[in-house]
Amino acid sequence: MPQFTIISAILIIVLLWLSPSQSFAADRFYANQALQQQAPQAFALQPQSDAFLAPAYALTISHADRLVGLINQDKNVTEAIANWSDLTIDEQIPWLKKVFALAVQSFGTQTPLLIIDNHSYPNKMVYFDFDVEKGGSGIVYLNPEKLAEEDPYASLAFLVHETRHSYQFQQALSGENDPISQGYLAAFNAQKQLKGFGFSDFLTLLNEYEAFQFGNYVIGQLTDWQVDMLNMGTFASQFNRQGQLKIDLQALSLNTSEQTLLEQYNELAQKQFNLRQQQ
């Protein structure tokens, strides 16, 4: 079957083995080439974004280390984070606001509006609200009622993640012509314009891919890599207990394999799919 790569054939076989409900779940989980080709500059798995991966990762680590350094300078914040699992969501909120302020300080950008309540965006657990036409710094939203049902560190991870989106958004609209700024802009536009995102499609948009990497790296550094949240992005944005990416897109992009980056990702992402099915 010359029209299919080996990985395509493997995925078809896997889907045939699945029950109908599992097959639908798999279809909604794996990256979809047809959807991503509608805006290839917006997705980390497309060759048009190769120039984004290495400089964006270097910037992620540099900025994340800067934020971790600021947090570590505040003994009260570090103590709260060390005991985060013992705090109720109401007890976490004052510390979330402190980390938010430190994140904005570390970025050196305009401060977005931070809303922490149960009603402003009632159907969302967390959200970054933005308008490409109007610009600005956006709105960072957390719903404490919904977050209280998640892993204790989810509130902190999402606070850092959503605040990172504000930095990305301001960089996207800065007028700079570098691969990072242009990649962010393409991703924010695609987020508004495209329909039919699955799990891996949405979370490999360049802004989501990088923001999850950023948030997961910060949480990892603050907890000595002992916190592992399965749903906090794809494995391409998650780190193992040694601080290494579970799926390293930079390394995969350098492979001489006949498989595309998207195909290689889908093959490796099967582990995350299986783990999610067990939840």
Structure characterization notes:
The chain is globular, with a radius of gyration of 19 Å. It is mainly alpha-helical and 279 residues long. It is 56% helix and 4% strand. It has a 3-stranded mixed beta sheet, with helices on one face. It has 14 helices and 3 strands. It starts with 5 loop residues before the first helix and ends with a helix. About 2% of the residues have low confidence.
Order of strands in the sheet with the most strands? 1-3-2
Coarse morphology: globular
Q: Classify the oligomer.
A: single chain
Beginning-to-end CA distance, first to last residue: 36 Å
Please compute the radius of gyration using only Cα atoms. Answer: 19 Å
Helix percentage range? 55-70%
Which segments are poorly predicted (pLDDT under 50) over 5 or more consecutive residues?
Answer: 12-17
What is the mean predicted local confidence, pLDDT? 93
Which features would summarize this protein structure in a list?
279 residues; mainly alpha; 14 helices; three-stranded mixed beta sheet
